[in-house]
Structure formats: structure tokens, C-alpha cells
# Entry
Amino acid sequence: MKDKDQIRPREKGDVPDDPLSRMRHSASHVMADAVRRLRPNAKVAIGPSIETGFYYDFDTEPFEPGDVERIEAEMRKIIAENLPFERRVVSRDEALKLFRSRGEKYKVEIIESIPEGDEVSYFQHGDFIDLCRGPHVERTGDIKAFKVLSFAGAYWRGDERNAQLQRIYGTAFGSEQELKDHLARIEEAKRRDHRLLGKQLDLYSMDELVGPGFVLWHPKGAFVRFQVEDLIRRENLRRGYELVYSPHVAREQLLETSGHLAHYKENLFGGMELDGQRYLVKPMNCPFHVAIYRSQLRSYRDLPLRYSELGTVYRYERSGALHGLLRVRGFTQDDGHLFIREDQIGDEVARCVHFALDMLNLFGFKDVDLFLSTRPESFMGDAAVWDHAEQALKGVMDGLGRPYKMDEGGGAFYGPKIDLKIKDAIGREWQCSTVQLDFQLPLNFDLEYVASDGSRQRPVMVHRALLGSIERFMAVLIEHHAGAFPLWLAPVQARVLSVSEKAADYATEVVERLRFEGLRAEADTTADKLGAKVRRAQMEKIPYMVVVGEKDMAAHVVSPRTREGQQQPAEPLDDFVRRLAEESAMPQLPSLQPAGYPAGSPAAGSRPPVPGAAAGQSSQFSQPSAGPPTKA
Ligand SMILES: [Zn+2]
Ligand SMILES: [Zn+2]
# Structure
């Protein structure tokens, strides 16, 4: 079967040869057949199986909601007919003739791209034929449980200059129960969609006038982002990083030297010419940090140098690829670049991976998958250096005491890398942290340091992002928590609702008392009915609602109610304030030298404690330990 399966064309997206993918791809044939039976003039484009189901693209009028039932009913008929999927192999010319006669111009275009003289395979069930390499299930009756999910616009070959097509998404499973579970997961994901919650909670927006893919953070979203960024900066300082800032525009030459111009040309914003110089908007922070390194002659004693920046970069993405906060055109990386000696690779990469794990844990992501990607077939530099680096990285991974996956040959041409993926509350996986070695950029910029013997040596660079893009991480946080941020992140922690006009003054007093303790509280003293006030607070997912009436005022107590609907007993106002302050503390930050750091690694605190990292913060921000520890 295997060699015959190699006969082209395989559709874009491929059909992985496992039973579920086979059934889903077969279901896409059945769906295409159903659409053709309902709309004989519809032209079919492509219909691959995808991770959670399948889709098929059609050249036809847009579908309407009622079409879901019509298409499903037709599909059920085809499945009941239990037609065999029959594979045929013909010459390229015969295939052209066949699909031309049926008016399938997209299939004709695919066949035309095949070299002359080649053979082509197609599959037929009933009257429906589809250019395809398979594999499929044996008969249409083998499709056990399916559902037509949604309609979307798409472009032929994914290019907006091409014809607009109508895409239908569907899914199929081996049993009705599995399908039911899957549909429940989709509903849950919808409930958590950060685009809807972003609007409902007034976190952010995007404006056509500003431009697609550019995020406007509203006060509440900006506050959550501030907390995240604040934590990142403080932790970077505690771990021996130095903060840097770099501009958003630079001369084209910088990106030419770094190699980004050649590599990223399609994704670059800008292209301004001023005073006879060409300028671009920055797509990457790395070359700027390199420029800081180059600003003076470095000695082996200066290394490792660790720079960090919440660096905002701009990359053009096709408008069809944009998706909420997950895929944008301007985003901020929690970027870091290390300049190290070759003998420091193991220690420093270990520190980066621990740092990443600590940060992810701190945000509540305990389930982390690790991947190590090694030398690809074409790589730059010295094989011996690669071997040494890969050994060091393997050592780091082995030292973690948790499983990891190897991606042999999956590294970048300029160095091996480690990726971390987290699982969210409903089991979806998100790529966040990455730690990459780079032998190329130091070469492009001719970076050097003076070694202990006085010779000039080239440093190795490490690129690392812990949370990745802040925008993307915010999306993950919103969806993970379904918008119900934990207390330390919640932009409003308590809302005080007055029952009557007489209680309004007391509501204001409670709010002032909470604010004085550094807590984020507001009062709802509007004339609305209490029920309306409660619903509003619930919609905004505010952790505590405090309803106050005249009796509470007289006794100076409050009766808080949690976001989950739990009514707590009345307690003195002072007690509530103290309790809320305790509950709002930032999660405990891990110690700086957890077990597992390689012995003899240089202490993060080889520099004096950084002012502001420990002292003089409000109670919410106080750190568990004062400043970076010194090594015994
Ligand atoms: Zn097929
Ligand atoms: Zn970088």
C-alpha cells in the first residue's frame, strides 16, 4: 500500500495515516458530496483533516445557518448508503480530462502543477470523485459520529488575491460519546474565548482606524498587564539580569547586518527614508542588545551579561492570519539576551529553564512539556561546538528530573533550543517559553571578549523569552481563568454595593478603607436595584461583592460574597480588609537557588542588590526575600 500511496497529489494539510484522521478525512469527502448534491454548481477546492476534525473549501454562495442541518441530513444519507471508497490511478492527462469534464477548476489547477507523465490517484464513492492520495476508510458507513460545526470565508491557496471560497468545518469521532465530549469542550472553549471576555470585561480593543492587529489596552486590561510586567521586571532583577531599553525604529543597516532583513523581509513594517538614510520599525530586540554589548570592549570577567527588556516589536502578518491577542502585528516580548562564554552554556541555560519553569508555575501552570531541538542537517559553525552545546543542553534537561521530548534535527541553523509548552485549565497546549543558543549573531556582528590569556574570543548568545509575547500570554491567562483572574491580578478586587441611599456613605467609606491598604476597590452607589448591581459585578467577574445596608453601617461590619456565589458571614470591616490584603499577595516567588541548579554556577547576585527590587514596595508587592542572595 505504501508505495502506491505515494502517488500524488496529496492535498495540502496531508492525511496522517491514523484511524481517526482517516475517518475525518473520509467524512470531508462525504461532506463535499453532500454539498454537491445540494448545490450542483458548487466547485470543490480542498478538504484535509485537521487536528480536531476536518474542513472543506467550496466555490459557491455563502452558506447560511440552516445549511448545517441540510448538509448533515444529506451526509447521513450518504453514510447510510454505505458506499465503498474506491481508489483509481490514472495518467495526469486522463485526470485532467476527467476533472475538466466535471468543471472542477481547482482540481484541474492542482493537477496542472504535477509534472507531465506522472500518475495521479483519485478516490470515488458513489458519483463523487475527489483528487486525493488517501488513505480513507473502506466505506462511507465506517464514519461513526460526525457534526458540521461552522462556516467561514477562506481564500484559494490561502491568498487573499485569489478567489473567495466558503469553508465548512466539521468533525468526526469513533463514537457518539466522544463526539459529545468534544462538542462540550468546544462550548467550554467558546465560553473562555479571550476575544469575547476581552470585550465583556473591558480589557482591550482593536480599532480599524488604528489598524488591524494593534492592541489598545483599556485601563482594566492594562492593569493586569502591568502586574504581569512588574513581576517579570522584578524577577529579572533578582536573577542577575539588567534592564535595558531600545528604540522602535532603526537604520536598515542594523537589520541587514543581523541578517533579519533577508530573513524577515516579508514581515517588516516601515521602510522610511529620511536624510538619505533608510529606516525600519523593529521586528526583533536582539540586534539592539547586541549593539549595547558592542558599545565597549568586554572581558571574560564581564560574562555572563544578561540583558532583559519588555521589548515591543512589529511584524506584518496577513490580515487573515490575525486572531485576537494570539496573532497580532505589534507585540511585546519578555525578551532576554545573554552573552556568555562557551564554558558557561550549561549553567546559563539551566538558569533560563528554571527561570521559565518558575514563572510558569507562579502563574499557576504546573503542567509543562519540555522539548529539546538539536542540530538540523544544514547548520552553521563548528560541529564540535554544537556537540558540546547539545551535551550541555541534554545535561540541563536530564538534571530537571522530569521527562522531555527530543526533536532531533529540529533546532535552528544557528543553534539548538529548548521549548516549554503549558497546558491550560481545559487541557489545551500553548507554546510559551523558549531558550535558544545562537552562534550566528555574534559572528555577524563580530562580537568579541578578551579572554584570560589576552586573546580575543567570540561569545555565545542566548535568546530567551519566558512568557513569550505578553499579548499572547494575556490571552492564555484570560482563557485559563475564564476571565476570573486570581485576586492578585484582578483589576478590581472588591465592589461595594449600597442597598440604599443612606448606605451610600458607608459604601464609600469601605472603598476608601480598602484603597488605603493598597487594595483595588470601587463602589456602586447608583440608584439601580440591588439585583442589577449584583449581576453587573458578576458579569465583570469581580472576586468580592460587598453588599452594605444601614445595619452594616451601624455595626461597622461587611458581609462579603465571593464571585463563586458563596455568601460569607458578617465580619468587622477591619478583619475583612486584613483578610483581603493577605489573600491578594502575589504568589510566593521561589527561592533563587532551587535544588537542581548546577553546582558551582555563579550566583545570580554577583552584583549588589538592585535598589527598588526589594525595599519600599506596598504590601502587595513585597518580596519574600530581600534582594538577590549571595553565595556562601
Ligand atoms: Zn481523500
Ligand atoms: Zn533574540
User: Anything to note?
Assistant: Confidence is low (pLDDT under 50) at residues 1-14, 594-632. Residues 25, 29, 123, 130, 132, 134, 136 surround zinc ion (ligand 1) (CB under 6 Å).
